[in-house]
Amino acid sequence: MKALYFNHFGDNSVLEYGTLPDPLIKSDEVLVKTDYIGLNFADIYRRRGHYHIEDHTPYINGYEGLGTIIKLGRSVTGITLGTKILFVDVPFANAELVAVPVTKIIKLPADLEEETAAAIGLQGLTADFLAHDLAKNKKDDKVFIQGISGGVGQILLQMLVADGIEVYGATSSNHKQQLALTQGATEVNLRTDKKISRENGTFATVFDGVGQTLEQSIALTQTKGAVVFFGMAGGDPPKVDLIKLLEHSKSILTGDLWDYLTSQTERQNRFNRLANYFIEQKIQIKQPQIFNLAEGKNAYALLESGKSNGKILMKSN
Ligand SMILES: NC(=O)c1ccc[n+]([C@@H]2O[C@H](COP(=O)([O-])OP(=O)(O)OC[C@H]3O[C@@H](n4cnc5c(N)ncnc54)[C@H](OP(=O)(O)O)[C@@H]3O)[C@@H](O)[C@H]2O)c1
């Protein structure tokens, strides 16, 4: 099979495209021929050597894809060859073929287009658990999102607005600012804008997946409010002074989506909940940017540049 892989950690130059042996499936796995492969910020952390990665030589990055089941493991029953499925937590996905454990299969709802399903899988499930498991905001709460027009940010913004929550945010360009406003944000500032500090102490929840912005996020949070810290796309966060948090009863909540995807039922129910926002047209996202897997290096470069504003997918054929 063709795959995008690397032999040592480093910058984008370590990525290579070429032929590797096909994966061998275990008895409780299916073999999936990928149509779309999702690129995520964690793939950059892994390529840099800054994040957990499965043991494999060479390393094949990626955990998310949508494709067709072309082979069934010996003990697999109740699944038909040719079924299209999505997965968001299966390693070695930057490849034409992926061995997917049955428990990690997510079936596609009938009314959702394949390209949309591929584009919303991991980022959408992330937005869903940030909003519904961690933050749990009440109707009319005011919340703030750092990097509001990133992949997770765009879905989170619209999901919260659909849930009746008032959303503010910060971003890096006028173009992204306009995008967030058209997607229902009440007010969006450029990250460098000094006006943001006028809102200190205002927000019930501040969602921060940028990392370097953590001190600003804590300042923006109201007494008894919480920062939901979920990633470091802009660099590692500074150390937190717990005494300062204590003085205003502020909290920092964190979470990793994979700790919430504990069974096949949990994966499917969460994805169905997410898909309904799209089927009911409460969330609309920009068309994903699509690269051939052979040009995967360019996809990584775009994500790492911080200039993308939506999902980046790769196609293996
Ligand atoms: N905890 C979890 O389970 C989980 C799961 C999935 C993703 N995540 C995290 O969620 C965050 C967002 O992921 P995503 O897939 O939405 O990525 P994304 O589409 O690239 O969005 C990240 C955003 O961060 C902002 N940013 C600020 N400084 C940046 C820099 N130096 N380089 C790149 N981006 C920068 C950019 O927004 P502006 O230009 O608007 O500032 C960018 O759009 C990441 O930190 C990721 O690790 C966490």
Ligand inventory: NADP nicotinamide-adenine-dinucleotide phosphate
Average residue pLDDT: 96
Task: Find the CATH superfamily of the largest domain.
Answer: NAD(P)-binding Rossmann-like Domain
What form results from the Cα inertia axes? Answer: globular
Question: Strand share of the residues?
Answer: 25-35%
Instruction: Please count the helical segments.
Output: 8
CATH topology of the largest domain: Rossmann fold
DSSP strand count:
16
Low-confidence stretches: none
- Report helical residue fraction: 25-40%
Biggest sheet layout? 7 strands, mixed
Radius of gyration: 20 Å
Secondary structural class: alpha/beta
End-to-end Cα distance: 11 Å
Total tally of structural domains: 2
- Give the helices and strands as they follow along the chain: EEEHEEEEEHEHEHEEHEHEHEHE
Q: Which CATH class of the largest domain?
A: Alpha Beta
Query: Architecture of the largest domain, CATH level 2?
Result: 3-Layer(aba) Sandwich
Question: Could you outline the blueprint of secondary structure elements for this entry?
Answer:
Blueprint: E1 2-6, E2 16-19, E3 29-38, H1 41-48, E4 59-60, E5 64-72, E6 84-87, E7 97-101, E8 106-107, H2 114-135, E9 142-146, H3 151-162, E10 166-171, H4 174-182, E11 187-190, E12 203-208, H5 214-220, E13 221-229, H6 242-247, E14 251-254, H7 264-279, E15 289-292, H8 296-305, E16 312-315
Parallel strand pairs: 9-10, 9-12, 10-11, 12-13, 13-14, 15-16
Antiparallel strand pairs: 1-2, 1-4, 3-5, 3-7, 3-16, 5-6, 6-8
Helix pairs in contact: 2-3, 2-7
Keywords: NADP, Oxidoreductase
Protein name: Oxidoreductase
Domain Enoyl reductase (ER): 10-314
